[in-house]
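Bug #2210: token dump truncated for Phage regulatory protein Rha (Phage_pRha)?
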Amino acid sequence: MKELVQLEDFKGELVPITDSLKVAEVTDKRHADVMKDIRELINKLMSNHETREIAQRNFAQCSYINSNNREMPKYLMTKEGFENLMFTYNGTKMVIAKAKFIRKFHEMEEELKNNQQFKLPKTYKEALEQLVEQEEEKEKLQLENKQKDEVIKQQTPKVLFADAVSASHTSILVGELAKILKQNGVDIGQNRFFEWLRENEYLIKRKGSDYNMPTQKSMKLELMEIKETSITHADGHISISKTPKITGKGQIYFINKLKPVLELAEA
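Reproduced locally. Full output below:
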């Protein structure tokens, strides 16, 4: 006997199919009786508008050549059609027969699923449909990538802040930190940053030799330090140049202080 279930073109679609001959053989029923049962089932389904479509979609009469070389009728049926037919049969033998067929239907469905993943177009229409699917998938991927790029773009300032913090093991000039802040969305330049440091008592704002030098508060918190540079003049005398610098700890401190300004601007 041939396979109980085979993949065949059924009403324009490749689906798992069995037929009345195979049902008769497995259930030990006469083929004529199975044909009669199918006709009665189809008539019942066709008599109700809610079930008419089931009969039309799942059964199809065709013919075969028997051992006497005569053309005889038989029915093809889908899994749904087969299940509806088996509902009319009772007994242990029928339960076993149904189980055999259903297992084969499942195997064919899995095979069909695997084949469709690598299906090559057979007609111009199929090729166009496949091309449309590929273009739609490409557009979907492009949209997803664009959305990812937007997220990355939005997160860039925060990433750069994190990079600045991780690299903050050396002291830098006030102007250098102002530049980092400016590049990351905080609208503050070197002069305004100096002014902010003075107004918030991190730098001395009293005019004099200590102007713009770290306050006792900054030094105590280890946020800033003073870099002293010896300068030898042409006449031989030496002077000391003092420059405020922000320590690694201070960089983290001021970035965290000013980060809410960036987050507020983003909101």
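Output looks complete on our side. Residues 167-266 form one domain. Marking as cannot-reproduce; reopen if the truncation happens again.
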